[in-house]
User: Which sequence fits this backbone?
């Protein structure tokens, strides 16, 4: 091994001398480079050389080359003293890096990530000869990897400007990779780019369209790409996703008569996959975005044209569609309508008409789905939001009552409608209606009510209703949902109205049977955030301690989280005496003191490590 390492080092002598002579590195730096390379070489020539050994050596050479390039700019090293514009010092480090990659992929042939690293380095270092060598060997060893064939064809097309060899590589790749859909899409893209570049070349040369013959016009319109598409669907007739991918590939490429090719592919997809939910969703969105980007068409018209994709199916062969697929198609249309609604809300000019159109479409969709016996939660939720947005509260309630799904989000939407209807029809008794509705309600109803509070008065009224219901309640469990509700109301008051309003609410809640230890922790942390930021609105330290004490008096025997939060608050203040007192009280009060001690030690230790 020593002789082999010695021989390798001796072969480096001329290039290292050249690096020193040109002024890239000093004599001491050259000695350091030799020592590092010798150490790496011993690692690489052992019997069980590891992949990491090669990677460390390669990274060292890359960093060395970056340093050489930087010094070339700083020291203005332009040409050789003997008149040569490029000496061995310019490429010796890169050449050694390539040789290391060659040795590594020879030993680890099956690791595609290593081949990818080498190919990327060839591209970054502009090493065309090594790129050809790497791609050739990679295709020989991994003939079923579509990515390698794609990269090789792209290299020939982009770098060598040889479309003939690029086509040959694509076709060989398709034979070897069993008609891979990604490879078909890239082949289609390459032919589109070829046609686009021919068109751009004619424009640069000043050749007009009048001089075009039929063959050239067909070529510039993507005739070869159309043949590729036809061959692709023949080889994979049941792959709808691949056909849609072709449209995505075509969208950004500027070729002559592009709309004609788009219409041909779209018609072909709808002819064979008219009831495929993914196809309908994708084509509808693509049409909306395409029409909207034209600029001279309103958002409402773009939405109408997008919905034509679904309406054509409803008007033609809807009765032949299976029941399960009908539900998926309805959900796909819901997804499209919601995306259009988001776009309409962001559009300041014509969003009003478009929003109204989308809501009407959602309501019509809900009616049609009900006729077909489809009552999916996703569909019902969308329809109810449309009723809510258009103010048709009574109709929305009727629609929900006629559906067979009243769980989860649908239940929340029902509460939304009931609260809004109560607000509209009985404004004078809104608080009473809310209290009646929410008195025995679960957390989801309260959350729905919070979302309905559009004004400060309604939010304060809701807080008063919670206090009234809590007064008539009993002390809740430490992790109760009512504690989460109280925390949510506190945060909304804090952010939307002000600190004092939130304090007034939680102070009154503390006088009631407590809704949970999680509420105590939440309120205390809100006040701590002001205390640690030295805000003028912050409470005193004793006031925060009083909040914790209110909770530990009730949940002191069971809530480890509450005691731990109290203890960490004292730790943050740096008062060891108070820390010890809280720790002692927790051990005396808790039923499971050992669990608290373990949690306490682990948390403090993690805090110390983080700080360190």
Assistant:
């Amino acid at each position: 091994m020593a002789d082999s390492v010695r021989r390798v080092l001796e072969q480096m002598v001329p290039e290292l001398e050249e690096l020193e002579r040109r002024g890239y590195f000093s004599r001491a730096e050259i000695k350091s480079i030799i020592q590092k390379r010798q150490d790496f070489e011993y690692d690489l020539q052992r019997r069980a050389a590891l992949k990491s050994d090669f990677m460390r050596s390669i990274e060292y050479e890359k960093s060395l080359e970056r340093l050489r390039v930087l010094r070339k700019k700083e020291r203005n090293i332009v040409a050789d003293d003997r008149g040569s514009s490029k000496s061995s010092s310019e490429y010796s480090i890169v050449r050694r890096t390539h040789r290391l990659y060659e040795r590594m992929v020879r030993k680890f042939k099956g690791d595609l990530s290593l081949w990818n690293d080498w190919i990327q380095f060839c591209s970054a270092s502009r090493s065309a000869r090594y790129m050809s060598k790497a791609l050739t060997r990679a295709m020989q060893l991994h003939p079923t990897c579509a990515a390698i064939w794609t990269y090789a064809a792209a290299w020939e097309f982009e770098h060598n400007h040889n479309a003939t060899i690029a086509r040959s590589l694509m076709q060989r790749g398709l034979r070897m990779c069993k008609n891979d859909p990604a490879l078909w899409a890239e082949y289609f893209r390459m032919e589109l780019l070829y046609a686009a570049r021919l068109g751009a070349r004619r424009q640069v040369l000043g050749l007009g369209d009048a001089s075009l013959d039929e063959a050239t016009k067909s070529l510039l319109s993507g005739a070869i790409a159309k043949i590729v598409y036809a061959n692709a669907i023949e080889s994979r007739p049941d792959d709808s996703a691949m056909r849609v991918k072709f449209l995505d590939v075509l969208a950004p490429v500027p070729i002559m008569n592009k709309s004609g090719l788009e219409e041909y592919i779209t018609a072909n997809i709808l002819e064979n996959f008219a009831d495929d939910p993914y196809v309908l969703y994708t084509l509808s969105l693509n049409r909306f975005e395409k029409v909207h980007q034209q600029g001279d068409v309103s958002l409402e018209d773009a939405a109408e044209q997008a919905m034509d994709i679904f309406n054509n199916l409803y008007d033609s062969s809807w009765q032949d569609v299976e029941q399960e697929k009908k539900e998926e198609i309805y959900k796909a249309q819901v997804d499209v309508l919601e995306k259009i609604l988001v776009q309409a809300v962001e559009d300041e000019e014509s969003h009003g008409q478009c929003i109204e159109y989308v809501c009407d479409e959602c309501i019509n969709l809900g009616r049609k789905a009900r006729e077909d016996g489809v009552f999916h939660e996703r569909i019902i939720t969308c329809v109810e939001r449309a009723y809510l947005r258009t103010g048709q509260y009574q109709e929305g309630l009727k629609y929900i009552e006629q559906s067979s799904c009243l769980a989860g989000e649908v239940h929340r939407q029902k509460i939304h409608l009931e609260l809004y209807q109560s607000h509209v029809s009985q404004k004078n008794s809104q608080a009473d209606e809310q209290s009646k509705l929410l008195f025995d309600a679960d957390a989801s109803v309260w959350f729905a009510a919070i979302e309905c509070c559009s004004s400060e008065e309604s939010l304060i009224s809701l807080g008063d209703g919670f206090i009234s219901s809590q007064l008539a309640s009993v002390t809740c469990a430490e992790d109760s949902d009512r504690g989460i509700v109280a925390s949510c109301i506190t945060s909304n008051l804090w952010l939307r109205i002000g600190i004092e309003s939130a304090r007034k609410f939680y102070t009154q809640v503390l006088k009631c049977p407590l809704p949970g230890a999680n509420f105590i922790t939440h309120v205390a942390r809100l006040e701590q955030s002001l205390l640690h930021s030295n805000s003028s609105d912050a409470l005193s330290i004793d006031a925060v301690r009083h909040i914790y004490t209110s909770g530990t008096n009730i949940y002191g025997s069971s809530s480890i989280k509450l005691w731990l939060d109290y203890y960490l608050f004292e730790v943050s203040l740096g008062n060891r005496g108070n820390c010890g007192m809280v720790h002692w009280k927790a051990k005396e009060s808790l039923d499971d003191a050992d669990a608290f001690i373990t949690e306490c030690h682990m948390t403090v230790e993690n805090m110390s490590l983080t700080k360190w």
